[in-house]
Amino acid sequence: MDFLNTHLLSLILFIPSLVALAIFFLPKNEIKLIRWTALLASLIPFGLSIYLWLNFKADAAGYQFVVEYDWYAAIHSSVKLGVDGLSLSMVLLTTLLTPLALLASFNITDRVKAYMILFLLLETGMLGVFLSIDLLVFFVFWEFGLVPMYFLINQWGSANRNYASLKFIIYTMGGSLGLLLGVQLLGVLFQTFDLQTIVTEWNSASGALLGFPISSVKAVIFWAFVVAFAVKVPVWPFHTWLPDAHTEAPTAGSMILAGVLLKLGAYGFLRLVLPLYPAQANYYAGALAFLAVAAIVFGALASYGQTDFKRLVAYSSVNHMGFVLLGIAAAARASGTTDATIALNGAVLQMFNHGLSAAGMFFLVGVIYERTHTRNLKEYGGLFPLVPVYGGILIFTSMSSLGLPGLNGFISEFLVVRGSWPILTAYTAIAMLGLFFTGAYILKAIKNVLHGPLNEHWAHGEHKMTEINAREIIVMAPLMALMLVIGVYPAWILDVINKAMVMLF
Amino acid sequence: MTTEALIWLIPLPPALAFFLIVLFTNKNKALSHTIGVGAAILSWIASMIVFARALGVEHLGEHPFKSAVNWLPTGAEWFRVGVLIDPLSAAVLFFVSITIFMIFLYSVGYHNYGQPAGDHDHAGLPPHGATVTEHGHTHVVPSVEPMYSRFFAFLGLFAFGMYVLVISDNLLTLFVGWEIMGLCSYLLIGFWYGKKSARDAAVKAFMTTRVGDVFMLLGISFLYSATGTLSFREIFTEKVLHVLQTVPSGVFGLSAAGLIGLLLFIGTVGKSAQWPLHVWLPDAMEGPTPVSAMIHAATMVSAGVYMVIRMFPLLSLDAGTMTVIAFIGTFTAIFAASIAVAQNDIKRVLAYSTISQLGFMIAALGIGAYVAAAFHLVTHAFFKALLFLGSGSVIHGMEHGVLHTGNHHVDAQDMFNMGGLRKKMPITFWTFLIGGFALSGFPLITAGFWSKDEILADAFGHGHMAVFITLAIAAFMTAFYTMRQITLTFLGEPRTEEAKHAHETPWTMTTPLVVLSFFAVTYGWLGIPEHFPGLGGILPNWFHDFVGHTLEHVPEAPAFSWVPLLTSLFVALGGLFFGWFYYRNVKSAQEDVFQIGVLKNKWYFDEVYDFLFIKPAYWFSETFVSKWMDKTVIDGILHSFGIATQWTGEKIRRWFDLAVVNKFGDMVGYGTKDIGKGMTPIQTGRIQQYMLAAVFAFLLVSLILYYFLTAA
Fold first, then answer.
1. Is A192 contained in some domain?
2. A376 and A460 belong to one structural domain
3. Which domain holds residue A219?
4. Among candidates B199, B620, B642 on the partner chain, residue whose Cβ is nearest the Cβ of A452
5. Which pTM does this prediction carry?
6. Could you give the CA distance from residue B584 to residue B422 in angstroms, rounded to a whole number?
7. Which residue of B has its CA nearest to A505?
8. Counting CB atoms within 10 angstroms of each CB, which of A241, B154, B223, B247 has the fewest?
9. Residues B70 and B158 in one domain
10. Which range marks the domain in which residue B643 is found?
């Protein structure tokens, strides 16, 4: 137990990679063995995350379960891991979604071994971002996660996958260039990459840097950081890689992409941008709010304008993640107030909630695509009597995405709106337009897929639509349970988030 | 059990019923409806116990039943949610639990429980009847609803939402119940989702009410950030209200209270189908009739009114907001009544009537008639639920006739296909008559008279003459279209073969009619004004005393005046008389002079909205945002980066890599080669020549060295 407690985070972080390595040595034709190894192994980090959650002291300030390994002493970088309430909830989300995504991938038959290895490496990449408290290591994991995802889209994606995967990786990498330079600068400046030290010293830094006033330098690097994270969130107008990547990715890839990868961007805002640049964030909060509201409104409208089911769901992510940024912008403007804390609570919970609902929605799109081989909404129609169970699950998950009170999405959206209203009143009011169209696109999807006169094409013969199967229900069940539980009694998770937000900002 | 604990439990049985039916019993019809009705009964019993205990508390307004728990952490504090039973919610709980119970029971018969499965019935479409052979001859009988269990599950979820709304002690959980009902409304309007019309009506209902909901959410956020709480009892303290009244909102010169009130009220406009967001309610009649009765008459649409009654202490702070409320209510009352006159579908008449009656309540609120609005809310719930269930019974009876004749082109809901049903369906007729008279405000006996009279008296007594006159005209129209409906449906002779073969409905459907008609009459006697000539004082004005005490300062009832009394007598009796007098002779829709285009087409609101909002929204999202902005502009910029990079790369390759770098490399390579080649002639292999070259080279180098060394 002692070993467990002292190395908990490194276990969570590296077990997926170790398993990936083990799978490398399995014979590639043993598909069943590979699948089950990957799935069962991915449950270990999940179990450890629950253990972590239970042993986490929400009231304690700072990072917990900190471990540090020498890595690159010459430039003062070390693998330093730690969690606080913010990263903890993201770690839980990641380790929960990965097994579900792996289970969802059981229908993959092509190069299963490579697929599973990439997926597990991806998990390490994502977890590394949430767990690192060393800036350089943070950046390394940040970029590392892109590679497996690139191949997942590029190799297992659908028709337009080359374009989508290239756009995804170039865009994200391009966006990160400024982040890399900024990280380097900070590292050179303070002779360390330790996040806590940098935050303290950077905020008290004064005078000139590189021949410019430090405030100008900070403003420039602030935007470099913002762009890097904004591409990932994605914030309007940096969002157009998302519909392509999500749509072309294999189902499980979309689940993780929407469920976790987008959170990396929002996490970057909370972990780095706000603590490192409080003054700049405060100054530019209006601009951030503008981009957030643009994401909310245009994301919802664009989603409503789609005829491709998966693209519709993809655009819904732009819409939902906009609320996260709106909360962040509000917090930046009025840091330290109760309103800001409420907005941040909402933003972080929205990250978690969107992870659940977006993963669920993408999976459900995958389920129907696998049976019909079409994503065109106009080609479905009246499928409800054929697939009543699927229909019920789809409506439930859609309602979570829509933000129906009683389910999880409402709590977080309400908190963001409530927190932002007194701080960014006009922006919040305009965001309501997006909230309205959220309803429009969700109902459009349900209307076209489930309701209306039955499209006889799917009722008979070889095209007969089959009901969602047990494996697929098992993928959805934990997501749905969490949606309901958070909607009815959010305090169990919100309390952890709330305490972290109070201590952080 | 403590009353507070009991209140917490009230919403649970229907919610459990929902989950049980959805997860486990959906294949078993009998078990599903047993669970559903059983849950409704449990909640009803709990509600009655709570109501009885509430009656036993002196000064319930000051000492309500309440209990709250921590729900959301907000920084250092917690947002608490809880339950509250004060006089207003007790009165609402009373009628809500009864109507819900009755409608659950009614649904058993309405969906033809016990009948055989249909010959060609599909899930998602209304049942078409089953052929049975009895005593040697075959005939067609109604068939059971294919999605029978699902219906009870949805009703259960709906009941849960309504109970949550009523017992909430704060706006946020009220909103939760509000939206859950909205979802159920959507699901139940679209219950027969296979019909395109039902599907579209469901979406329309959800989206139209959502317009109001997003404004309401802003209002809630504003209220919460302005006061730090959403709990009714914490907001309605003089200190908090004073702050809200004095702080400016910065919009339209309204106070914070004014703007919050307006935002919340827009929510009500959507939910209670007030003009200009009324368009969804008539279409909502696509749903099964119990749904129309429960959601679109008695409970959900009333929830909008309930909310403004609830928030009255806040709303009444700003005169501007109150004027808006009064105007919207009054206008809706007469506007919807005018449309109801020209409708032929038995349910659509009732739908417009509901919009109009809700307008009465809103108008009453707008002029400050708090108790009158609440009173009309309760009486209306009883008689309108009764009327809807009655119309469902009529339709059911007519469908029986349709199945008998086999002529499926006859619209079982068109009143001009009916007539003379009083003999075929006596229970339905008498109860419908009671409901109709209550709606018309038939003097002294019916509940509708007392509540409507109180609204008119308030309007008159407080000097709101425009409201008074408009509402009086609307009340006249109400009586008129109600009697038109009764006359066309029940009186005279059957107009069609189907009407001749209509059939009274089973006990599960008629029992609720009888129970509701009891309340549609007697409930009015609980609110007879003290100074009413002759009757005043015989029964205490219980409703006014009880519900009035919800507020800190019990509102004064207006002094008695003959003007409003005579007006309500005249409009009710006059409207009823003319309705009967004209329509007793009208044989078909062609003869009806009130079939005026603008009324029949609902003042063309659907068409206008389609042109102004729906089409532009489609265009904007499909063409502007998604095709033009994202795909053309933003992606265009991205692609141009890509193209520019490629172009630059290409140019660099051609003009630098190829031209300079490669040329230089080539030059070195080829140059060496060429030089080597050029040297080949001297590589003769003869040692003498090499020696000679060495001597020359030695001399040359020596000379160079000599030159440099001596120069230095």
1. yes
2. yes
3. 1-269
4. B199
5. 0.91
6. 14
7. B75
8. B247
9. yes
10. 610-711
